[in-house]
Design a protein that fits this description.
Helix content is 80%, strand content 0%. It is built from 10 helices and no strands.
Length: 251
């Protein structure tokens, strides 16, 4: 029985070989037909879009040019940003207003330029406040310049610390000018919009103080005072107004 079984196995293997070969040939033929169909479909698509090749290539060229231009502009913007901050830090180290003005002139619209504007406004407000007890007209001129600078900065709707400092500075300048209602609204805005920041508590305290009748009465009294530089200071400032020197005895 073993030889017969072995013979049948060989016969089955021999019979299956031609069948498998036929299946492989059929599969290859079908694949070739499929490839031909795909190639034919591709050629049809190419023929359809051939008239638009020029437009497509032009579009691709424009997109590539835009991508390259964007890369160039981005790199230039980053370089400008770095240079603007370098200039602003240099101005801060000297404290010269001309240097801050140069930052604003050379780098308009940058964060560094906006901070330079804020620092110049702070300087004007501080100078004006200090001069209130010495030279009222000149002090009011500096304070009004600070108000205008803060207002111009706020027109750009600054965010974060810059915006907070601008609103607070404007409120301080208006308080020094005796514009108490406007100053109080500014302080209240800082306390409400930046409750977690350091200036919020100070602003809330100033708003409460300006709401007191005694505070308003003091500002009314102070605003009515005529404060001008002492005569001695005027003479020192203008040597031509100084009294002529008296000759020494015996001369």
């Amino acid at each position: 029985m073993a030889p017969d079984a072995e013979g049948r196995s060989r016969l089955a293997a021999d019979e299956s070989s031609p069948l498998d070969a036929d299946r492989v040939d059929l599969a290859l033929a079908e694949e070739e037909v499929g490839d031909n169909d795909l190639a034919e479909a591709t050629l049809k698509i190419v023929e359809r879009i051939r008239p638009y090749f020029g437009t497509i290539l032009a579009g691709l060229a424009a997109a590539l040019a835009a991508f390259v231009a964007y890369g160039v502009v981005s790199s230039q913007a980053e370089a400008t940003r770095t240079q603007s901050w370098d200039a602003c830090l240099a101005a801060m180290s000297t404290g010269e207003m001309d240097s801050f003005n140069e930052v604003v002139r050379r780098y308009p619209g940058t964060d560094a330029a906006r901070w330079a504007e804020l620092l110049m406004a702070d300087a004007a407000a501080s100078e004006g406040t200090q001069m209130l007890f010495i030279d009222r007209p000149r002090a009011e001129g500096r304070l009004q310049a600070a108000v205008e600078a803060y207002s111009s900065l706020m027109a750009g709707r600054p965010q974060g610390l810059l915006g907070e400092r601008a609103v607070f500075g404007l409120a301080k300048a208006r308080e020094s000018l005796g514009q108490l209602a406007e100053a109080r609204r500014g302080y209240e805005a800082v306390a409400a919009e930046f409750p977690a920041d350091a200036l919020a508590q100070i602003a809330a305290g100033r708003a409460a103080e300006l709401g007191r009748e005694s505070t308003r009465q003091w500002y009314d009294w102070f605003g009515a005072q005529k404060i001008t530089p002492p005569a001695s200071a005027t003479n020192v400032a203008n040597p031509a107004n100084a009294a002529p020197a008296q000759p020494a005895a015996g001369q």
